[in-house]
Amino acid sequence: MNIGEASKASKVSAKMIRYYEQTGLIPPASRTDSGYRAYTSSDIHRLHFIRNARDMGFSVAEISDLLSLWNDRSRHSAHVKRLAQEHILDLQRRMAAMQQMVDTLGTLVSHCAGDERPDCPILANLALPDEIPDEPDQRTGALQRRPGGAIP
């Protein structure tokens, strides 16, 4: 089947199929005489696996590890379980960081008059420097600053 049919069958866009091929998550498709990619039912099965893993939030690198385990019939399920448990912990950390962002933004919104005046605690808070300027790579996306708050 061609890439359009593979996309429809796997519910993975043609663009992502090409990306997964480029990154090595799926093997390079065979080519027809006219140069079109040709996919097998095995490729579609693998794309379903990848799509399901992506839907659970696994990264491309983690999916690569999962695919290696999936293809290794001598593997122990403990390896798969450990990888899934690590992913659960990562998801929980990300959820906590997102909840912190919601809480911080909610507090800022509650302190904003939302009127015609130019004063805005939301913008003022976003303009504040980080508390830990020596460690710029430590940010996770959540606002982890201003204990005691810089909220007016």
Automatic annotation (TrEMBL):
PROSITE patterns: HTH_MERR_2. InterPro entries: CueR (IPR011789), DNA-bd_dom_put_sf (IPR009061), MerR-type_HTH_dom (IPR000551), MerR_fam (IPR047057), Tscrpt_reg_MerR_DNA-bd (IPR015358). It is found in: Cytoplasm. Its main location: cytoplasm. Residues 1-69 form the HTH merR-type domain. It holds the Pfam family MerR. Keywords: Cytoplasm, DNA-binding, Transcription, Transcription regulation. Transmembrane segments: none annotated. NCBIfam families: CueR. This is Cu(I)-responsive transcriptional regulator. The gene is cueR.
